[in-house]
């Protein structure tokens, strides 16, 4: 007898299984009601041609408080960043809570305060909300959904299909920090040094890049599935190859050590305050300069190039002169990281 | 020793405890980042003055499938209705899932199909999404958040503060049906006759009312907390009293019987396909005619009047010639009804 196919943790990992769920279950079921892509954010035109970015994300991170932040910070910054990656100025946000009966009101209050502070810092207004409660045993503390609306300035055209051969691939700083920070405070895992989450709102960094006048082709915040998942999606959508130079990847020693211990590739570990920018080669220096001048982009650097070879595939040149394929993570390596 | 104050089921009931959580926890914590009200939907102005309605709702109904519908129908229709109650034409929707590990993919597929069908019927597009998975034991099947964006036509001004003394209070049909339908399929509860949920998208009914040219003051879909909660909120926001005529309330026998059995007031039981309309007395007949001509408003009738007396309070004239106060439900009488 064959078991009934069921949801597994990997369906929520942001990798290949998540993509399959969208392609083989959600899109066929939604039919003509669905947009062609159900991506991290949608671009909508309303009224006189105003272009809106619209995005949604649910947060189930465990534990709810971790070094450097909380589920409240993530819930605001995550949606701000999804909007910012289409070049939008984030303006409005909803907050919807699913609370487990028995959750301490002091914890909920701390989380809501973190959300308020993050929203003020990002200049977005929390305008509508909802609260549901599930019985004890049917939930796990606090789950938060935020959805956001931003306005895309005229002339800005940023999207995952725009990467072109020759483009430079930039990263705004150290990778893998958020994932390691959350893992470090789970049961029995401590890596000696405290790693703090990099959770941050990135729309200011995006504005600094756009102010250079460069034609930014693609932006992406590499959250679940890490840099590997984001670059694979971009390579597929743009039909280009991506070639990374492994020694140029900014991986802090603490992240490298933790990844060794857990058998993880830092390229597949979640970030919550970093962005990938893909820009024409001749504007790479200008954009890098703008990034490094911003407090959230001090560690920015170029990590690779888009190429005509191996379209849809990401490879890394290793220190030994060889190359290795950087795959889309299949399932979930770090469950409930955001 | 005093117990730590904690979340209880009543915080999710849509009544007095839900309102307290918003007023005493969320609004102070959000501070200046929050809109003055965190209502069911917000009205936002973008671009050249286009007015958007923006709404969010999470759905945790148990069981996920019930007579007349599923969590998928509710998730689409609920957000469509929140938008429609500000007079907006619903256009775009997000769908975010929190799935429990082990949920059958066939169940998830049925739910997604229901969402697609409901979205097509309502003319909204599902444009962006998210999926998270929580470990078995940390969730309960499928939780869905939908957020929606609609455009409010020029000249339309509908809101909970606009009820005025003398206005007529209309209901579009039988009350209490959804709540009883969900309760009827819970463990051990059967009421003899099958009651089907009234889940439906109401924006067409709103359009029919607006087409009469009447100056519709307030619209509300009385979901959690029922007609009682909606009218209490309106009475408070508009500083009017509301006087209902009890014998005019359309309560089907099946709902009345089930409520007797469970000790519930039908006025406090959730609806998912009904609306309350508050309109100037001199347009009440015209609006009622438009409602009753529409398939979703055949059972429409006038149930009361806004008055200058007892502002903020809802009373019902009983069959015996007395009056009783129709209170805002305190906690949650029917948990996880939507």
Automatic annotation (TrEMBL), chains A, B:
CDD domains hit by this protein: HypE (cd02197)
One of the protein's GO biological processes: protein maturation
SUPFAM superfamilies found in the cross-reference section: PurM C-terminal domain-like, PurM N-terminal domain-like
UniProt cross-references to Pfam families, sorted A to Z: AIRS (PF00586), AIRS_C (PF02769)
Domain PurM-like C-terminal: 165-309
Residue ranges constituting the PurM-like N-terminal domain according to the UniProt record: 40-152
Family under the similarity heading: Belongs to the HypE family.
Name the UniProt record assigns to this protein: Hydrogenase expression/formation protein HypE
């Amino acid at each position: 007898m064959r078991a009934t196919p069921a949801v597994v943790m990997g369906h929520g990992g942001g990798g290949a299984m998540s993509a399959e769920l969208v392609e083989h279950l959600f899109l066929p079921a939604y039919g003509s009601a669905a947009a062609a892509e159900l991506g991290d954010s949608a671009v909508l035109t309303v009224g006189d041609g105003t272009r809106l970015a619209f995005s949604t994300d649910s947060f189930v991170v465990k534990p709810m408080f971790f070094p450097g932040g909380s589920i409240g910070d993530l819930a605001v910054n995550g949606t701000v960043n999804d909007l910012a990656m289409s070049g939008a100025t984030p303006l409005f946000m909803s907050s919807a809570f699913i609370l487990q009966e028995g959750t301490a009101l002091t914890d909920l209050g701390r989380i809501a305060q973190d959300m308020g502070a993050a929203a003020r810092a990002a200049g977005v207004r929390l305008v509508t909300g909802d609260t549901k409660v599930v019985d004890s045993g049917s939930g796990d503390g606090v789950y938060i959904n935020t959805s956001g609306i931003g306005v895309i300035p005229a002339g800005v055209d940023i999207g995952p299909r725009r990467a072109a051969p020759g483009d430079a691939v930039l990263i705004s700083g150290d990778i893998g920090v958020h994932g390691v920070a959350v893992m470090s405070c789970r049961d029995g895992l401590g890596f000696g040094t405290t790693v703090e989450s990099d959770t941050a709102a990135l729309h200011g960094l995006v504005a600094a890049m756009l102010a250079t006048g460069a034609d930014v082709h693609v932006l992406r915040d590499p959250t679940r599935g890490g840099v590997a998942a984001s670059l694979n999606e971009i390579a597929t959508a743009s039909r280009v190859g991506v070639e990374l130079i492994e020694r140029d990847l900014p991986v802090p020693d603490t992240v490298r050590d933790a990844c060794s211990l857990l058998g993880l590739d830092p390229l597949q570990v979640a970030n919550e305050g970093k962005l990938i920018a893909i820009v024409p080669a001749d504007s790479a220096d200008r954009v890098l300069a703008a990034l490094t001048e911003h407090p959230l982009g001090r560690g920015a650097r170029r990590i690779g190039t888009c190429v005509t070879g191996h379209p849809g595939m990401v490879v890394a040149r290793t220190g030994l002169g060889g190359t290795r394929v950087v795959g889309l993570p299949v399932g979930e390596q770090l469950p409930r990281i955001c």
